[in-house]
Specification:
Blueprint lengths: L2 H4 L6 H8 L2 H21 L3 H45 L3 H15 L3 E6 L4 E5 L23 E10 L2 E11 L1 H51 L14 H35 L4 E5 L5 E4 L2 H6 L3 H6 L3 H5 L5 H12 L4 E9 L5 E12 L5 E10 L1 H44 L3 E6 L4 E4 L1 H7 L12 H9 L5 H14 L6 E4 L5 E10 L6 E10 L1 H15 L9 H18 L3 E9 L1 H8 L1 H18 L5 E6 L2 E7 L3 H17 L2 E2 L5 E2 L2 E9 L6 H17 L5 E3 L7
Parallel strand pairs: 20-21
Antiparallel strand pairs: 1-2, 1-4, 3-4, 5-6, 5-9, 7-8, 8-9, 10-11, 10-14, 12-13, 13-14, 15-17, 15-20, 16-17, 18-19
Helix pairs in contact: 3-6, 4-5, 4-6, 6-7, 18-19, 19-20
Pfam family, one: GGDEF
Protein name: Diguanylate cyclase
Organism: Candidatus Methylophosphatis roskildensis
């Protein structure tokens, strides 16, 4: 039986009764009633019950699956939301921002609790969960309807820039899932119960039931026609009527799915278009604005509604001087032409002017219908200002280029003059750039260091040159440390000396080379000079000034210098300074009898022998004639007495043979004084040591005496 023969979807329910009363229609319905009555009478007790049970089980299974799928999808969306809100802050360790975000997410998202864990799953933050209570086990997804009172415990892995930074565990209430499950179970039970009751009555009212079901089908079709695509009819029969009902349900199910998909697609489109950063607009084929996203307010200050309602959008937005060109371009666009980066000035609501770049393309439907024009706009004011500034810069650069070429030629001439000057100097000159590479060396540099004069060092790294200099240096490590200290100081160095293995001595100095600005350093210059001869002469002069020419001992001048220095040191350190003064006994007769040459021989021998027993911290001086002195820092009376005995014994052991074969011996009279025990200054200390020495001579020579104040004797 064709359903179209039973009811016309375009007729009202009242017309159905008129057609059923027609004898041509009543006879088939009567036959159908008898057939169905026999069927229902035989199977109503068993078949209907089984069908209801199966339908109930299947409905529950489908519902549970849909509920679980929907909940898992919601959890996935929540994970994306949490990751977007928290991951970047966790990567920067901004926990105070994360705490605020978690609190806001919990309130807005209906979370029971939120817990932030680091990569090692250590708890960092808790929202809605006691800190003394351990977190429950979590699951990746829900596979079954939770029991009553249970919480959905799950988590999200926080990733940012391709790296895992931590986890957020959260709990969701499962009450709604459980309630929907129980509600469907209850509804299924009620429907099943009703179906059984109706089936029991169907055997008595089958004819009326068929008519009623057809009316229900008609009403459902009418509801679908009104847009109620979720309309469904319960299937209570397995004959042609039941198949028709099933087909209707499938049709409305498919229609509902398509409507929902279309609604989601439309919502997705609006979400993307409305929140796109650039301005997106849609004009109809007549050039009327029919839609524009919210970014227009950010760029122009006008709301989307103000733009849509504007009588002349060009008058509202485009800068007056650009309106004509913009209008012509818009007309070309409506004629189907595509354009990119059409730049126009836009007049904002506050009166300011910005630059915008427009792109447009025609929109066509699936059947080729002209739907209008899509226009995209973006604020390019910053780029435009940069372009204008760049043009000004190019003009300035071209103007300066000619000046630079002139100065470059002059600088080249100056460079050649400077190179010629440096080549005739005795100083070895080395320039090192900021990149630690050698820029220039003159000829004298190679000569001073013992390298070939014509060797080109330009471009060589300074570390390579240091390695080569190590081969000629007497102390390469010390020189390398000095170079590193000079470079690190960023300042000019004091003059320093360098000893080479061949015995030569170089004097060096270094300074920073400033560029156009005093604070802009372009490298460092080093100057080296061979000062071997100057040092030899200086050392010779120092030796002559401080040493006795006969004995090579320190002279009286050096004695007084050391005396002042050691007294100051002793006063500062609160120690004693001892001075021993000795005069040779019997020296004058030898000098008179055997001549000055013999006397000089005696003095040289005395200096050598006594100098051999003087210790490292003791200084030996010849004060003049046959008078000598020993200075001992940080000494004591006991030590000075020991020194006097050693000196006296050593001199007494010496034997001198003169030209006639005569053998003579000498003795010494020794005086000792200590600072600050016996004197307050150097002059007084020497005077008291001399006084003690004269006391020793008065005692019969070959004696030593420690100074004693006569007033206390």
């Amino acid at each position: 039986m064709n359903p179209d023969e039973i009811i016309d979807a375009g007729q009202e329910p009242g017309h159905l009764e008129e057609r059923v009363s027609d004898p041509g229609v009543a006879r088939p319905l009567l036959t159908l009633s008898r057939t169905l009555g026999v069927r229902y009478a035989s199977v109503v007790a068993t078949v209907i019950t089984v069908i209801v049970a199966l339908l109930t089980a299947n409905s529950m299974r489908l519902l549970d699956r849909n509920l679980l799928q929907h909940e898992n999808e919601r959890i996935a969306e929540l994970r994306l939301l949490i990751n977007a809100a928290v991951a970047s802050h966790l990567a920067e360790n901004e926990l105070h921002y994360i705490r605020a975000e978690l609190s806001s997410i919990r309130l807005d998202g209906g979370f029971l609790y939120l817990a932030l864990l680091d990569r090692d799953q250590r708890v960092l933050l808790l929202e809605g969960w006691p800190s003394d209570k351990p977190l429950p086990p979590r699951v990746e997804r829900i596979d079954a309807i939770p029991e009553e009172g249970r919480v959905i415990d799950t988590f999200v892995t926080l990733t940012h820039a391709g790296r895992v930074h931590g986890y957020v565990m959260f709990g969701l209430a499962a009450d709604k899932l459980r309630a929907a499950h129980l509600q469907m179970l209850w509804q299924s039970f009620v429907i099943g119960l009703i179906a059984i009751v109706v089936a029991a009555l169907a055997t008595l009212l089958v004819s009326r039931l068929v008519t009623r079901e057809l009316r229900a089908l008609h009403r459902a079709a009418t509801a679908v026609g009104r847009g109620e695509v979720e309309t469904r009819l319960p299937v209570r029969r397995f004959d042609e009527i039941g198949e028709l009902t099933l087909a209707f349900n499938r049709m409305t199910q498919a229609l509902g799915d398509r409507m929902r998909a279309l609604t989601k697609s439309e919502a997705r489109f609006h979400a993307i278009a409305d929140y796109t950063y650039a301005v997106e607009a849609w004009f109809n084929p007549g050039g009327k604005l029919i839609w524009i996203n919210r970014s227009i307010e950010r760029i122009t200050g006008y709301t989307a509604l103000e733009c849509v309602l504007a009588a002349d959008l060009m008058q509202l937005l485009v800068y007056p001087k650009d309106r004509r060109a913009a209008q012509e371009a818009f007309v070309h666009a409506l004629n189907g032409r595509v354009a990119e980066n059409f730049e126009v000035r836009v007049q904002r609501k506050d009166g300011s002017v910005i630059w915008a770049a427009l792109n447009w393309q025609p929109i066509f439907g699936a059947d080729g219908e002209d739907l209008g024009l899509r226009v995209s706009a973006d604020d390019v004011s910053s780029r435009k200002q940069a372009e204008i500034k760049l043009l000004d810069t190019v003009v300035d650069l071209r103007r300066e280029q000619s000046l630079k070429e002139y100065y470059l030629k002059r600088s080249e001439d100056e460079r050649f003059r400077l190179a010629a000057l440096l080549d005739v100097l005795r100083l070895g000159i080395l320039f090192v750039g900021k990149d630690e590479r050698i820029v220039y060396t003159n000829r004298a540099f190679g000569r001073v260091w013992g390298f070939p004069e014509d060797e080109n060092f330009a471009g060589m790294r300074d570390s390579v040159l240091l390695d080569r200099q190590d081969g000629v240096l007497a102390g390469g490590a010390a020189f390398r440390r000095h170079v590193e200290e000079v470079i690190a100081s960023h300042d000019a160095s004091a003059p320093f000396e360098i000893e080479l293995r061949d015995g030569r001595v170089l004097s060096g100095v270094s300074a920073v080379v400033s560029g156009q600005s005093p604070t802009l350093h372009i490298g460092r210059v080093w100057a080296f000079e061979d000062v071997t001869e100057q040092r030899r002469i200086a050392e010779q002069l120092i030796h002559m000034a401080e040493r006795d020419p006969l004995t090579s001992l320190f002279n009286r001048r050096r004695f007084h210098e050391e005396l002042e220095r050691n007294i100051a040191e002793a006063a500062r350190r609160h120690t004693e300074l001892g001075v021993l003064v000795m005069d040779l006994d019997g020296f004058k007769p030898i000098n008179d009898e055997f001549g000055h040459h013999a006397g000089d021989q005696v003095l040289v021998t005395i200096a050598r022998e006594v100098g051999g027993i003087v210790r490292r911290n003791e200084m030996f001086f010849r004060l003049g004639g046959d008078e000598f002195a020993v200075m001992t820092p940080e000494s004591s009376e006991f030590e000075m007495v020991g020194l006097a005995r050693r000196v006296a014994n050593r001199i007494g052991e010496l034997r001198f043979t003169f030209g006639s074969g005569r053998v003579s011996r000498l003795t010494a009279s020794i005086g000792i004084a200590l600072y600050p025990v016996h004197a307050d200054d150097g002059e007084q200390l020497v005077a008291h040591a001399d006084s003690a020495m004269y006391q020793a001579k008065a005692a019969g020579k070959n004696h030593w005496r420690i100074y004693r104040d006569p007033s206390r004797a």
